[in-house]
């Protein structure tokens, strides 16, 4: 977790970035409302507006690092959140030859956390998958539930599992061992900060969950995010 001083620095940068995004959102909204805009331009402007709103939400989360304000979680359905984020996730893959496959089944995957945090997890992991599939492929996003044994007495807890699987370059054992290190990245300069997985683990640790990663060179990577389930009722 970042120190308070580092948090204040991140919050300051996020504040300035959020101001830029507010301007982007305002201009995109003008294009959406302009009746002279061609239909295809309106669609693009709506996508820009949606992504800028997501970015503003993420900046707001970073701003909270520099304050004493606690997170305010609520009961959310992970499957519903994944479905409602589908357009954003497909936008992340836009421009690549990769496709997105979402499977949520009939599970009522209810957890107690901030909905924005679920989207941050998705944003980071799908972005990582896109970058790993330079020749294209499929990113699978699935929501499962699983009982995990907690001790030798047979006691278990049920977790919602958010699974992100890709068919990309994968990682060897040495790279996988450092995958959660802050600022560690195998991407070319300017392509990534190396914070994606460390942010994901920080979010999941905060709610009492854990993350597991399986990867093999030239085969792909599977990330499983385990979040404590609070209810199976619809």
Would you give an account of this structure?
The structure is a single chain. By secondary structure, the chain is of the alpha+beta class. The protein has two domains: 4-66; 74-228, Histidine kinase-like ATPase, C-terminal domain (Heat Shock Protein 90), CATH 3.30.565.10. It has helices spanning 4-33, 39-63, 78-84, 86-93, 115-132, 173-177, 196-206, and strands at 74-77, 98-103, 110-113, 137-149, 156-166, 210-216, 220-228. Strands 2-4-5-7-6 form a five-stranded mixed β-sheet. A two-stranded antiparallel sheet has the order 1-3. A hairpin with a 3-residue loop joins strand 6 (210-216) and strand 7. Residues 189-193 have low confidence and may be disordered.
Q: What is the CATH first-level class name of the largest domain?
A: Alpha Beta
Q: Structural class of the secondary elements?
A: alpha+beta
Task: Give the total of domains.
Answer: 2
The succession of helices and strands, N to C, reads: HHEHHEEHEEHHEE
N-to-C terminal Cα separation, in Å? Answer: 34 Å
Brief write-up:
The protein has 234 residues and is α+β, with helices and mostly antiparallel strands. The protein has helices at residues 4-33, 39-63, 78-84, 86-93, 115-132, 173-177, 196-206; strands at 74-77, 98-103, 110-113, 137-149, 156-166, 210-216, 220-228. It folds into 2 domains: 4-66; 74-228, Heat Shock Protein 90, CATH 3.30.565.
């Amino acid at each position: 977790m970042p120190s308070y001083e580092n948090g204040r620095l991140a919050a300051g940068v996020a504040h300035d970035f959020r101001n830029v995004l507010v301007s982007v959102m305002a201009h995109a909204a003008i294009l959406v409302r302009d009746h002279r805009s061609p239909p295809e331009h309106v669609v693009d402007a709506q996508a820009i507006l949606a992504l800028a709103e997501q970015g503003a939400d993420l900046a707001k989360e970073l701003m909270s690092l520099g304050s004493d304000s606690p997170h305010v979680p609520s009961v959310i359905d992970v499957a519903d959140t994944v479905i409602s984020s589908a357009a954003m996730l497909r936008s992340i893959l836009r421009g690549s030859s990769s496709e997105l496959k979402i499977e949520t089944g009939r599970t009522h995957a209810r957890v107690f956390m901030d909905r924005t945090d679920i989207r941050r997890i998705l944003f980071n992991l799908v972005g990582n998958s896109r970058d790993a599939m330079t020749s294209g492929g499929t990113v699978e996003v699935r929501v499962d539930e699983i009982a995990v044994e907690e001790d030798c007495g047979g006691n278990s807890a049920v977790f919602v599992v958010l699974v992100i699987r890709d068919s990309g370059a994968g990682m060897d054992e040495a790279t996988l061992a450092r995958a959660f290190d802050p600022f560690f990245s195998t991407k070319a300069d300017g392509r990534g900060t190396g914070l994606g997985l460390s942010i994901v683990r920080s979010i999941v640790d905060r709610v009492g969950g854990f993350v597991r990663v399986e990867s093999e060179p030239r085969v792909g990577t599977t990330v499983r995010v385990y979040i404590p389930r609070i209810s199976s009722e619809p």
